[in-house]
Amino acid sequence: MPKTIGLKDLTGEGVGAIPAPVRQEMIVEVERKFTCSGDTLKTLEEIGVCVGQRQFLDQYFDTPEFELTLRDLWLRKRKECWELKCPAEMVTGTEEPSGEQSLCTRYKEITNLPEIYMKVKEVIKEGCKDGESGPSLDDDSWLRKLNLVCFAEYTTVRQSFTLGEEGLQIDLDQADFGYNVGEIEVLIPEGGDVQSAQEKIRNAAQKLGLTGDEQVEGKMHVYLKRYHPEHYAKLLSAHIL
Ligand code: V4E
Question: Considering the domain boundaries, does residue 16 fall inside one?
Fold first, then answer.
C-alpha cells in the first residue's frame, strides 16, 4: 500500500488524502504526426511489426475560460488514469525548431496525480474554490475544486507498430468523430537526447516514404475546430495550435 498523506503536507492547505507523490522520472514524448495514405499503410504493413490494437476514451478538462489549454497544458483522463501534457522546456540557448524539426512536437507527461493537482492549481490559482475539503483518489472532487469541466471527449482505436528501431513506435489512430491520423513517436527521459529522437523519427518517416513537410493536424486540433471553433481560433492566435 502506498503511504498516503494529506495534500496539506504539500500545499499547506488541507485538501484531503491522496498518495504521497513519488517523484517519477519525467517522460518526454517527441512525436511527428502524419497522414496515413494507402501507400504508407502498405509500406508500414510490409516493413513494420504490428504490436497491438487498443481502444480508449479520452476526456479532456479545462476551466470554462480555458486557462490550461491557453497555456498549452492538456489535462486528460484515459483509461481511469490522469495525464497532464506540458511543453517540454527548450535547453537555454537553443533556437526555436525550424524546418523539418518543427514537424516534431515535444511534450512532457505528468502522470502522478498529486503533481498534476499542484501544477494545475499553480496555473489557475486565481479564482479557484479553495476550501477545507479536497481531492481524493476515490473520486474526482478535485475537479470541482479547481473548476475544471470536460470540454472534449472522444474514443480512439489505435493500431501500433514498431520498425525494429529501439524506443520508436508508430500509431495509427481512428477517432470516433471521423478523423484518422498517424504518429511516429519516441519517448525519452526529461533532459534526454532530443536530437537523436528526432533523427530516429526522420529515418522512420523516410522509410515510410513520407515526403511532405506540412504540419499534420492532431485529433484535438480537428475536434476543437469542429466543436469549439471560438476556442480553436484563440489557440491559433496564441500559437498553441
Ligand atoms: C493538442 C495537444 C495535446 C492534446 C493531445 O494531443 P494528441 O497528441 O493529438 O493526442 P494523442 O491522443 O495522440 O496523445 P498520445 O497518445 O500520443 O499521448 S498535447 C499537445 N497538444 C498541442 C499540439 C500541437 N500544438 N501540435 C501538434 C502537431 N500536436 C499537438
Answer: no
